[in-house]
Request: fold
Amino acid sequence: MDRIAFNVGGLAIYWYGILTAAGFGAGLWTASRRVAGHPVLPRSVVADLGPWLIVGGLVGARLWFVISYWNDDFAGKPLWEIFNIRGGGLVFYGGLVGAGIAGGLFARIRRLPLWELADVLAPSIALGHAFGRVGCYTNGCCYGAPTRLPWGVPLPDAPVGQAVLVHPTQLYEAILLVGLCAALAWHYRRKRFAGHTFALYLIAYAILRFTLEFLRGDYGTLSLAGLKPGQAFSVVTLAAGVWLFLSQRASTPADTRAAPPG
Reply:
């Protein structure tokens, strides 16, 4: 698939950028519908928070990528290349951290309950990420290890005459993320304490990502403590999700653990 969707005055517009933008849009739209009728959060909170999440997510995702691949992709090149994200170069975990920091600051400034806000956003994070993974597929990044399965896809940028079929790990993850979004949206109406749905998102995505990383083939020899980078951060994410679940559950009286109206 051609990475370029179209050109505007000689400027290439990539499918990756279009799908990333669509993911942000879909995530914010679904979250804005979910927050309607919330007993504490104002209906306009998602629209107000949106720019914070977009900026924080993009900065975090790009910064993580630049740090991780500085020697390979940026050393000795013009500084402006750091800001050229039209064709890719974003790392989800960096975006999650960046958006989390931005969301935390927003909640603190506006004096809003952080974990209630996180619960509203959790299913939408999974949905937006699914769009992003399809973007990765069109961009040829985050590809899988070689496979002989009938649905294997050609290795991106393989030399002519050396075609290799690899797992479409980007599409595997996109499909699983749509399922995760649906499960979290169902759970949101049944959550029993603030942070419940977001904690389950962190736990479920960490397990999903750790498992899929075994099929990834784009890291080469890059590892952290014997784990692929995505697996290493998945362990951290899983620990954070378990901590949030246990701490919020323990701090919420049993007789007040009721699902929010709506």
Notes: The chain has a mean pLDDT of 90.
